[in-house]
Design goal:
The chain is mostly beta strands. It contains eight helices and 52 strands.
Length: 676
């Protein structure tokens, strides 16, 4: 950024800094606590920067390091100290910071650049990275609830985008399903991303995410919309090489002239020589003075780029008439064997030149190079022949063997998501959505371990680093790292109001009526157990099914018989069974049948970490008056705490008293989600 500001100063000119120190921030001896002053660049005299840097010793202290909350970071930035009379400008990775008190940034790693400008225009630049963390204290929870940040996923950076690429990036934007997202370009709402009329040119994209309480978060992105036919080009900086520059020293005139003839420049650049400011139009006939002189060498590229050099030498008269000089051609810019991309090969060929006004002719694998830029370069081994021809007909030839490889491909990885916490199901969906441009392949690693199958990989439930690598067939690669915390997916529940009646006490003569019901659940769902109801009619009570396939759901390994209505005289036989859970799991209810032991494949047990003991229970029915051979009572829970879920099942006991309270468990609400 600073180099950009320097370039602006060079183009428009910069006024010298004020001589009066009265505008400097008050300070203690040697340093000052300096407020931000982003006008500091207005008065920089670039011509004096190198000299001033040596003359003025700038210092900056108390640069923030480590982790900070947003408020802590603001305080740390405000406490930075710089040399007395100096001014401080701060950038983060996306913006110039005009006001520390109004500063805001998403949590994560932030790279800050601190530029100190002294009174005389000297500069000092430091770059440090800190980590911004969420502020999570009791004092700020209410504030955070009122100023909620709704996450917009797949945000992209400001920049230039073709219309097709912009549509793709807009389609990737999303918010959590309970929130809504509105998109507008230059204030015009986008109702259909594909049908919207995108106009090429500068535009502001506005994103507004809202939750159910009408709280909102707004983001803006500055883009330059390009038509799909546009191909952005980046200007290439011309790098001119001047060859044959003589070393400072004393030369006889004849030797000096000969050295002048050997001076050349790369890439068809022209050479202009001068001596003490006077142009040398003819090396042989120029009127050379003796004694100390300044040789000026100016190389001008066809695109107008100029490179100049000066050499301090001394000329003395030639004392001995030299024999006729045989033409000695020097070829400059040759390179060693290696593997080079096509673009690198072109660059090296442009740098080849020869002394004495010699013309260069090059052939590659036997094919003459008429134009370096348009020549058809083949990937693989290459043999380059260089022939230099002097105006007097003398020639010199050199050969270079090397290898050419394809130019690197600029790969874009699509579907990258923000660091954060994701359950396993969410993470798998995001990983499946990843793709890359130019038909590049995607490789995913978790803490360095290759993910061979996204669905079946054993993801650790912890904080990990995901490494996404896109590889093109040419060998070009693009990498991205995402830090995430992986959690277990929730156990999925479904509410049902439908049930099947399994057994009633009808005909038994029991004092109270009772019926046992089994929830009707969809395919792919299991039940936690049956329900006992103090009436023969189903009054629309709520029952639950649980989706099978979750790693924390298992079938019972068997049953224990709790009670039989034998001797009751009831119209139907009834037997109560208690499921036996696998080790590490808990069964949440008993099952009623008309006699035989039930199968285990329709009942679910839950891993222990998702359940909690429960003590508030009540008796629904006992068999008093039924005449059954053994006593029985059926019990259920009363759950009135929003942090827990009643499995809506009964627990039986072979007496009229309450069964062991340890049999009554409830589900933790934080472990489940409802699918309806």
């Amino acid at each position: 950024r600073y180099l950009i500001l320097l370039s602006i100063c060079i183009f428009f000119g910069c006024a010298p800094p004020p001589a009066d120190d009265s505008t400097s921030t008050p300070s203690n001896e040697g340093s000052s606590k300096t407020s931000l002053d982003n006008s500091a660049f207005e008065n920089v005299n670039l011509d004096n920067i190198i000299e001033n840097n040596e003359a003025e010793n700038l210092e900056i202290d108390n640069i923030p390091k480590g982790e900070f909350t947003l408020e802590g970071l603001k305080k740390a930035l405000d406490e930075i100290e710089v040399s007395k009379g100096a001014k401080l400008t701060i950038y983060d990775d996306i913006q110039l910071i005009d006001d520390i008190d109004d500063y805001d940034h998403e949590p994560g790693k932030i790279e800050f650049t601190y530029v100190v400008i002294g009174k005389n225009g000297a500069t000092l630049e430091e770059t440090k990275t800190i980590t911004l963390v969420e502020q999570d204290t009791d004092d700020t929870k209410d504030t955070e609830n009122n100023n909620i940040e709704i996450v917009i996923y797949s945000l992209f950076e400001s920049g230039a985008y073709k219309i097709s690429d912009l549509k793709f990036k807009l389609k990737l934007l999303r918010v959590d399903e309970e929130n809504s997202l509105a998109i507008a370009i230059n204030g015009v709402a986008i109702n259909d991303i594909d049908a919207f009329n995108y106009s090429p040119g500068s535009a502001i994209i506005t994103l507004i995410a809202k939750d159910n309480d009408n709280r909102s978060t707004t983001k803006t992105i500055q883009v330059n919309v390009l038509s799909d036919d546009d191909t952005p080009t980046q200007p290439k900086e011309t790098d001119i090489s001047i060859y044959g520059i003589m070393a400072p020293g004393e030369y006889e005139l004849a030797t000096f002239k000969n050295n002048l003839k050997n001076i050349a420049a790369s890439d068809n650049s022209t050479i202009l020589l001068s001596l003490n400011g006077f142009t040398i139009y003819s090396i042989d006939s120029h009127n050379y003075p003796t004694g100390p002189v300044v040789l000026g060498i100016k190389a001008t590229h066809p695109d107008g780029t100029v490179k100049s050099e000066t050499v301090n030498i001394s000329i003395k008269e030639t004392t001995v008439t030299p024999p006729p000089v045989q033409t000695e051609i020097t070829i400059y810019g040759t390179f060693s064997w290696g593997e080079y991309t096509i673009d690198d090969t072109k660059s090296k060929l442009r740098g080849i030149a020869a002394s004495g006004g010699s013309q260069i002719q090059m052939t590659l694998n036997g094919s003459t190079i008429q134009s370096i830029d348009s020549h058809n370069y083949s990937v693989g081994p290459a043999n380059l022949s260089i022939k230099a021809t002097h105006p007097d007909g003398t020639t010199k030839t050199e050969a270079i063997g090397f290898s050419i490889k394809a130019n690197p491909v600029d790969i874009t990885i699509f579907g990258l998501f923000a660091p954060g916490t994701y359950n396993k199901t969410e993470l798998i969906a995001k990983l499946k959505a990843l793709s890359a441009s130019h038909s590049s392949s995607i490789k995913i690693e978790v803490n360095g371990d290759r993910v061979s199958s996204i669905d079946s990989y054993n993801y650790p439930y912890s904080s990990v680093t995901l490494k996404i690598t896109a590889t093109h067939s040419t060998g070009s690669m693009k990498e991205a790292n995402i830090d995430v915390t992986i959690t277990k997916p929730p156990i999925e529940l479904k509410v049902t109001y439908e049930s099947t009646r399994i057994w009633t006490d009808a005909g038994s003569g029991a004092d109270d009526d009772v019926a046992f019901y089994r929830p009707k659940v969809s395919d792919g769902y299991l039940i936690f157990g049956d329900k006992v109801h103090g009436s023969y009619s189903n009054s629309g009570f709520v029952l639950l099914g649980v989706k099978e396939g979750h790693e924390d759901i298992a079938h019972p390994v068997g049953y224990t018989r709790i009670w039989s209505d034998a001797g009751s005289g009831a119209d139907q036989d009834g037997v109560v069974w208690r499921p036996t859970a696998p080790i590490g799991f808990t069964c949440l209810g008993d099952v009623m049948t008309n006699g035989p032991q039930p199968e285990t494949d329709f009942v679910a047990c839950v891993r222990n970490e998702h359940v909690e003991n429960w003590s508030t229970v009540y008796k629904v029915w006992d068999d008093e008056g039924s005449g059954a051979d053994s006593d029985f009572s059926g019990w259920q829970r009363t759950v009135n705490n929003d942090s827990y879920v009643d499995p809506a099942t009964f627990i039986g006991n072979s007496s009229h008293s309450r069964p062991s309270i340890s049999l009554f468990k409830v589900l933790k609400k934080s472990s489940v989600k409802y699918n309806n």
